[in-house]
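Q: What structure does this chain adopt?
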Amino acid sequence: MKKIAIIAIALLAIFGVYSLFNQQKPIIRTADYSAYMTPDHLQKAEKAVAEHISFWEKKLDEQPENFVYQSKLASQYSAWFKLTGEVEKLYQADSILQLVNERYPNRVGTLQALSANAITRHSFAEAEGLMRQALALGERKHASSLMLTDVLLERGNFTDASILMRDLDARSQFDYLIREMKMLDQTGHLPEAIEKMENALALARKSGSKELLNWALSNLADMYGHDGRIQLSYDTYLEALANNPADLHSLKGIAWVAFSHDHNTAEARRILGFLQTVHPVPDYDLLLSDIAAFENKPDEAMAYRQSFIAKASNPAYGNMYKAYLCNLKASKMGQADEACTIAEHEVAERPHPMSYGLLAWAEYQKGDKAAALDIIEKHVMNQTQEPKAIYHTGVILAGNGHKKEAKKYLEEALGASFELGPVAAMEIKEDLKRL
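A:
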């Protein structure tokens, strides 16, 4: 009887945990998106870009010094990188544009293209320099102002970005609205940012551009998720996929819904497994490590983390994965000193509250609680609403004895459980219990 009682208690514990993570009605349905989980859609998109690359390469064979052909080819190489994740193509594009810029200096179009590539590589200081140079030339000033606004927002220079936007005309146009959206989002006004994005989506629908429409839909789906409107986020991802069946970003978004909302780890793994076969980038290992941790598979979680670090540390990626590497090394790998070095570089490249949040977290994990508190008080608190920064701020405040304020931040972070994920949500609940 005693043995039966022990088994019964164990089963009750298991079902208790199960019910804890399955209180919400599942959202995803495999029938909604299974048709998109085939390499055919991506291969079709790749074929179109490959044909463009071949066309411009042949043109350049005939006229090797033609800078128009060079610029067109560089554009297609960048498009290939975005489609396939082959980072070498991004550097080929950059090399071509650098040559064009050397031979024909002070061409605004070339400077804009170089800046766009620098943004993709997360070389934001370089991108800002290029856009200020382009803006000073006076041609295509509107486009240069919009791109400079992007860079200023990435670098946390909200004041200069706001001043620049005040001087822009055509405020009802798509390009202006999305910058206004970014400004509102970055400064913690998510509902207003979503409203601007919805207005931009309406314009995208009228434009007839499938590319513009897909960009608007997939980004709006992300924002709905951040706002806790998970069903709407999922539906919007599906609409984005219907518009562009090769939209891997939206498939990854659905994988996140499967994991973070439904706790359907098997389906999240299935989607991510497909994405890995068609788009071999480091990102998926990071998400798979969270899934393994949630499933209480620590060895597998560590293997995925190590795989991510090995891939993302490839120098070809430049700064693209530095923030993720920093957080991972500080939080999970016991490499706080390395994390501090990365964070210091991030702050220099991108002096944004989120970068300072990374530095504070690395200092805290290193054991310097006072330095961590000083950083968040000066550069993070009341300057960003990004959930991870809010969560880490709460932990740092608690570690420095500010329990009442820590509770406020941790409860706010818990409200963003969908965005942070189930593993972080469990950790936050434990932190709150300790206060």
